[in-house]
Amino acid sequence: MLPQTSFHISRIPSLILRSATTIRMPSNYCGRGSLLYSSSTRLLGSKAGVPGNPPGEIVLEDYQEALPNIDQDRLKRTVEQIREILGYTTYDLSLYLVEDELMQETNLETRGMNKPTDILSFPFHEPIEPGRLQEPEFQNIPDYFSLGEMMIDVPYVIRGCQEDSEFDNQQQDSDLVYDDNNSEEDRGVSGAMATVYDPEERIHMLLVHGMLHLVGHDHEQDDEYELMVQKEEEILIQLGMMDPAKGNQR
């Protein structure tokens, strides 16, 4: 079975900048650890100085053929819903649906790992704390109102669905009892996805995790992990992707 918790945050890869001209990055980026920070960031609220206070743009680029009929409009609606829950409706966000080769190249370039993964998140801003971004130095420049970018490897997600379905069938056919409520692996988005075998539905769940990374959540430390999975479960329940009773059991 593929590992469920293979989500990551990393730097904006130059290959994305080459392949998608819709990304607009300020010139003052600096790397800090595995996160990319900008010296000009924004707290949730209105676009001060921008006429009309418009909602943020959602850019979706589809570079994959594994799910040719994926509902892009529905994906954008899910992004809009999550963005509203997080309180950043005026911020732009880009989502890239890719295949293994591009994901593996990006993962190698940004994290030194020569293999594909399910999702990578590239934050645009530095958080004050999980879920809260700093005020920007320039409040009249629309390009600074961006949460960042996410890349999802669709074939990887499909394989995960297939392997988890096979694993579940094997468990049902065996005499072993698998108690997922006692597994620390099955929390938040990871736990919710474990019994969802439709790759398109999983992609919607992955958006929850990826967007939480964009606003400063992480899971490297135990306290960070606990906070993040609790927030994931809250959002999944709000979106109707998780049974409230299951979330309350945590």
Which architecture per CATH?
3-Layer(aba) Sandwich
Q: What name goes with the CATH superfamily?
A: Metalloproteases ("zincins"), catalytic domain
Largest sheet: 5 strands, mixed
Total strands: the figure is 9
Number of domains: 1
**How much β-strand is present in the residues?**
15-25%
Please write the string of helix (H) and strand (E) elements. EHEEEHEHEEEEHHHHH
User: How many angstroms separate the termini?
Assistant: 23 Å
Helix content: 25-40%
The rounded Rg comes to 18 Å
Task: Count the DSSP helices.
Answer: 8
Mean pLDDT, nearest integer?
A: 78
Which regions have little confidence, pLDDT < 50, spanning 5+ residues?
1-46, 180-184
Q: State the shape.
A: globular
User: Would you tell me which CATH topology applies?
Assistant: Collagenase (Catalytic Domain)
CATH top level?
A: Alpha Beta
Structural class: alpha/beta
Widest β-sheet, arrangement of strands: 1-6-9-5-4
